[in-house]
Amino acid sequence: MTDAQRALHADHDLLLLDLDGVVYVGPHAVPGAVQALAAVTRDGAVTGYATNNASRTPQEVAAHLGSLGVPVQPEQVTTSSQAAALLVRERLGSGARVLPVGGPGVRAALLEAGLVPVGAPEERPDAVVQGFGRQVGWTDLADAAVAVRAGALWVATNTDPTLPTERGPAPGNGSLVGAVRNAVDVDPLVAGKPEPGLFASAARRAAAAAPLVVGDRLDTDVAGAHRAGMASLLVLTGVSTPLEALLAPAHQRPEHVGADLGALLQPPARAEREGDWWRCGPAVARVADRVVTASLDDSAAPRGPASTEDLLALLRAACAAVRDAEGRDAAAPADGAAAPGNGVAALHVDGALVRALELLRARCTARG
Question: Collapsing DSSP states into helix, strand and coil, what is residue 297?
Fold first, then answer.
């Protein structure tokens, strides 16, 4: 087998997967995810799971995955609650008193780290750890605010503003953290993605030297992979959209983009330059006069709507063209001899390409 034929997962000694929007949405598996994970496991891939969802314990996450047909040991799961508890212990030492706000996973992580959970701000906690929980209410948020104003160290497990559900995006822990912040006017320390600690901890646990981070969010999964010095695969089954991937800033750009976890079983798709254009399979793209355009050539399916693979090729070719254009802007002389650029923010995406990316988004997030 040549390097060009090797599956993406074969180049990495750990697949570090997000969960919500990648493996499952709500109680149900993302279509094709279970089959893809079974296939990479048969191929010898090592998998781990790093989630910003702090509400559940690793044991509960492993049980959920097992019920979907993905056998996982709790030791393969790393949560943002665990990262937050370790951060508190590093700052305050074992035995510190902590007010947990969130689901059962928060309290369990505190106990695992040798910390002492308390039930109210009147017990004078040394810290507050705030994570997501579906039952978190006004009283919980108010208690957190009281403790923080009294001087408690405030640690948020994560600040994802939304989380994917079967009914669409819903408020995530970041939205609840924002409510507390409005009352205390200070910012919390953040333990989960995009901070690198969650990834680094999971990689150490697996003794991995070349992990691949797999996620659905540019702002947490991909940005966190960059901070941790790891490669990343963005799948389009969750929060971030193809258009957002096209226009992502440098610190949120994945090395690979796929429709779903099936991308792990395919060779990496790469765009190559052809004159002023960039080609990926049947798709060509370029940036001219600050406009991003892309199209399919005659090698694509001649009849009917474009396939999902064709739409992915459009996205990949367009991403390469945008990165190239941004690089040319960065290299332009500062004396005004070249047209001024403002990176991706100054680009306009052709309407036909926007519609193609919207169609790709709809296909990748269909839950049929």
Answer: coil
